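Weekend entry, working from home. Most of the wet-lab plans are on hold until the incubator is repaired, so I used the time to fold the two sequences that have been sitting in the queue since the last round of cloning. Logging both here for the record. First:
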Amino acid sequence: MSLAFLLTSLIVVVSPGTGVLYTLAAALTKGSRASIAAAFGCTLGILPHLSAAMLGLAAVLHASALAFAALKWCGVVYLLYMAWQTLREQGALAIDTKVEARSNVRLVGRGFLINILNPKLSIFFVAFLPQFISADESHPLARMLELSAAFMAMTLVVFVLYGLFAASVRDRVISRPKVMRWLRRAFASGFALLGAKLAFAER
């Protein structure tokens, strides 16, 4: 596995996006375990896109304007829903003093949906992964699986680190109502802006 692949993947993973925003929100309001659940859900949401890239389905998505638009607008609606829930003090920024196992399952599910409803991820992996597979590779599928596993592992580790850092300052944040109001507005705006960005995305 090349250093170029690892560095490029790291840059992609640490860049703020919906997954990072969601993981931070879960950490600040529900603690470290919740942030790990959110990070796991977001990472799991990458798997269908990687599978699509390996099976060639992303090429179909890229070619079909209808399929791309359908998935894109589902993602836009979901991100706007997340923004609305955040403003209503529900969803990602609902403060839970006691997080049950059922809540963690819900966090995983939301994180999964956030990433699976982004069609740009499938197209990204189609363009990204083949660059690191040589033309004379004897087992290209196995190589792609290896790169995909490394990318997902890196995503999980980075998101968990983001979450644990946010969880470490959680007590100082949730005890200040004014700070929480500001954070809700900031996170809601973040989800809405990412939704708008996805709405204007082209194939």
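Second, folded right after the first finished:
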Amino acid sequence: MARFRRKKQENNALRELLSWVQIIVVAAVIAFILNNFLIANSRVPTGSMENTIMAGDRVIGSRLSYRFGEPQRGDVIIFRWPDDEKVLFVKRIIGMPGDKVTVRDGMVYLNDSETPLEESYIKEPMVAESPKSFTVPEGAYFCMGDNRNESMDARYWKNPYVYKNKILAKVLFRYWPGIKGIH
């Protein structure tokens, strides 16, 4: 009788262990699918997107956003940096395919307009630099940080355009240190 109870206890312990292993495996598979196909989770290490996203914030992006729609001017995106695709960047889309983006006198102009782009999201006015002009190729985007005076963005990259196939996700919100929607 004692042997039977011991055997039953061993079977119960084994079932309990297998139950926990099954839960852990299922959770790992779900996390893998979410992180690789549905969402992108990224940390922003610098202040280049202040005040929209602060240095050290974490953001969640939707990997599905651009499978069913096109990127839009003003979207904040997570993408592979054109100068080193191992590095992920978070920036705002300023120039669309075919746009001419001109940066002069501390302002951004699109398509030879005399009126600068209205950018309520920038941290502070840009310090004026020598004028720069970029013509965005088809299938690509021109991206800048919201903290223009502290942003290493497309104005300074060797390869200034982000191609759609290098965009990982559209940023939906930041969740650390506090939840805030992206505008």
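Plan for Monday: verify the second prediction. The helical segments are 2-38.
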